[in-house]
Amino acid sequence: MNMKGERFRMKGQIFLIAGFLLAVMFFAGLPKPDVMAQTPTTEDLEYIYENIEHELCRALTLGMNESAPVDTLKNFTSFTSDMLETRYISLNALWVVSEGNKSTIINVSVGNFLDSSVNITLNLTRNGGTQTIEYLDVSKSSEGSAEFHSVTEDYNLTIIYNDESYIAEWKRDKLNLYCLLNLTRGENIKKEEFSY
Hints:
- This protein is 37% helix and 40% strand.
- It is an alpha+beta fold and 196 residues long.
- Strand 1 and strand 2 form a beta hairpin.
- It is built from four helices and nine strands.
- The longest helix has 28 residues.
- It has one domain: Sandwich (Immunoglobulin-like), CATH 2.60.40.2950.
- It has a five-stranded antiparallel sheet, with helices on one face. Strands 4-3-6-7 form a four-stranded antiparallel sheet, with no helix packed on it.
- Helix 3 runs antiparallel to helix 4.
């Protein structure tokens, strides 16, 4: 009878040990909380911003070579915005492109890829005076264009929108670009403007 009692006690110990080992293996297989969810930093937004700035200039040059700089820039901005949304990054952009031709006319196009429509005023200043063109309500994801006449020299273009302004010094016979880029992911924001 002694042997029978020991045998039942050992079976119980084996079940306890097996249960303990299963619990240890289960909890050892779970990922650690700090590895599971890492919050991205603004460093990658800086890298993405620099990349977009570089590629926007390349898209503008490509569009110029294909005689469609504004359409190429518009398509590139839409494509980039869509691709960044898959990475949970919101891209808002506003760009102004000026292009001089062989006559004295400067064509100016404005692309609005901000969250809402925007009121834009353009002041072109040169030695001969100032010309002003106002865009009222350039709607979201659209583009507008206008012409400045009798421009025979380099000029300054003042771009005014949503109580912000930027003064660009541009060459008359060159394709010029101003761009405001705003990248947002959660609480991380990268907002800068540049001129090319």
